[in-house]
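Provenance

Sequences were taken from public entries as deposited. Structures were produced by running a predictor on each sequence independently, with no templates supplied. The record for 3-oxoacyl-[acyl-carrier protein] reductase from Capronia coronata CBS 617.96 is shown for reference.
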Amino acid sequence: MPGPRFTDKIIFITGGSSGLGAEASALFIDEGAHVFIMDLAEKGILTRLGEEKATFFQGDVGKPEDCESAIRACVDKHGRLDILFHNAAQPTPMTTVPFHDLVQFQQIINTNLCGLFYLARIAIPQMQVQKKGVIVATASTSALGGEYGLASYAASKAGMLNLMRTMALDHARENIRINAICPGYMPTPMTEGLGELVKVVEESIPQGRGGDPTEVARAALFLASEDASYMTGQALIVDGGWSAHSGAPNLLKYVPQQFRYDEK
Ligand SMILES: NC(=O)c1ccc[n+]([C@@H]2O[C@H](COP(=O)([O-])OP(=O)(O)OC[C@H]3O[C@@H](n4cnc5c(N)ncnc54)[C@H](O)[C@@H]3O)[C@@H](O)[C@H]2O)c1
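Predicted structure for 3-oxoacyl-[acyl-carrier protein] reductase:
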């Protein structure tokens, strides 16, 4: 059994109070790290993680001044920043562009996409001084193609991927690796209240279920770790096979008996 991969590493996580970010925080701590969580609200995360290895900073990733203060507070406290995991995101109402509230559109792009920019422009110079660093961003399978009714969210997440790739190119020779994960559907507070829709989504996932946030967090930890030392500029899809198909329905169910080899 290999040893812990993050002993004494300093991990800055946005959206770490809930869902995927909370699971990732717990896993990082299990592997020896200190986590510095930036989120809009604390939501009891310090009780779960304990204050010895976790710090909470209340801030909005959509505000450049909050991003700067939070990263500076992390570096002031720990003396360094090894890994930035930008995972916070604002969900979106499902609607079409003509009905999309203008301010809400701007907020979603600002939180999800601009947040990565605001954080990276403070984190990268620190990593340059350290001559090493890792950034992981949480995008989504919504970044990989158009998504019905999800204009702002899909645009923000797709933008994150090309920002991630560009920063990866620009900083590859400085020993800074930058990658993204693209989760498919996970039951978390963000996806609560979808009701009947969940069944439809789960049915369309080849593995037949949503992802446990821990399964996605483990992929984020892989990218953050030395196990991914030769990976940069990549989007790692963690979606139970959702994005593996072409978009065509599963016609196997409808093929007449005489054409089926497997059931003769
Ligand atoms: N749940 C899914 O099905 C799913 C699918 C694909 C991608 N994702 C992505 O995974 C990431 C985590 O989502 P989750 O499902 O764990 O959601 P979640 O709602 O459980 O957690 C998101 C956290 O981000 C925080 N946050 C939101 N806006 C913020 C802001 N402006 N500043 C600081 N913190 C902010 C929230 O307070 C919350 O604690 C997000 O980037 C989301 O887009 C989720």
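Residues 14-15, 17-21, 39-41, 60-62, 87-90, 111, 138, 140, 183, 185-186, 188-191 surround nicotinamide-adenine-dinucleotide (CB under 6 Å).
The first helix runs from residue 19 to 30.
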